[in-house]
User: What shape does this take?
Amino acid sequence: STTPVIRHLISISDLTNKEFETLVNKAISFKKIIKTENKPEILANHEKLLGKTVALVFSKRSTRTRISSEGAASFFGAQPMFLGKDDIQLGVNESLYDTTKVISSMVSTIFARVNSHKEIQDLAKHSSVPIINSLCDTYHPLQAIADIVTIKETFGELKGLKLTWIGDANNVINDLLIASLRSGINVSVATPNGIELDPKVIKVADEVSKDNGTSYELTHDPIAASQNANILVTDTFVSMGQEFEAQQKLKQFQGFQISTEHTAVAAQNWKFMHCLPRHKEEVTDEVFYSENSLVFPEAENRLYAAISVLDTFVVNKGDFSK
Ligand code: CP
Ligand code: NVA
Assistant: This one.
């Protein structure tokens, strides 16, 4: 018999359109089961990972990702174990290789929040269980799934929507760009001069948009990018791990705060999104707390995204047809 190939969730780039759509739709159906308190369905799911454990190996802070992945583990009857950077030997007293071998021998999956993308790749290489990328410097796939779930439940039809990103060229937009282009959404990305998307992401975006008849543009003009946007999105200007260059980055982002200047030129049905945590320099209170803001449902949808991912990659061992 051959050893089965382990499917890891590293980035939205690694999925097919169909697989990505499955993750989104599954999140929406799990949300229904949970919101309607459908007991028989909940109990049936509760047996799926009963008696198992799920490790969260996090070397950075987290509110949403931690709560949603611990919640997802509980939904399937598994015990989550949060292993922060000060809790385990990793990085101080033990190598990533040894740590991965040991942890993966005892748990059903590892949610990992790391610094470099290379760390996620190394984890995936040496782990005997699925690795779920819970944010690295280059990608944040769980966020992208929750974001498309949120857009789908708000707009219904995804085809032809325009999403505008005004912000950094970071992990969140890298996956959100590919997720949008896979889903029929056109994208405009406005970054400050001198801050450009990763060429490796651009390459995937070119392929995916060509395959799907979607389009995207890269610009340094936030107002032009906002024209007719259905969804305006941003994120922190200073990601975790970049604190040392905060001053310099904040200077580069002057003029990038999303405000009514942007919503005024957006489509009439515009919505605002932000993965959170949010700082005032990224968006005015007026927009952030407006009726058009989806930020809190978006955060809540992280739970259903994590449940969908756990079901697909762990319960069904990467078989998307189940
Ligand atoms: N959006 C997000 O990933 O938030 P946390 O850093 O709080 O997990
Ligand atoms: N880009 C941000 C996202 C936080 C959820 C960071 O990496 O810190």
Observations:
- The mean pLDDT is 97.
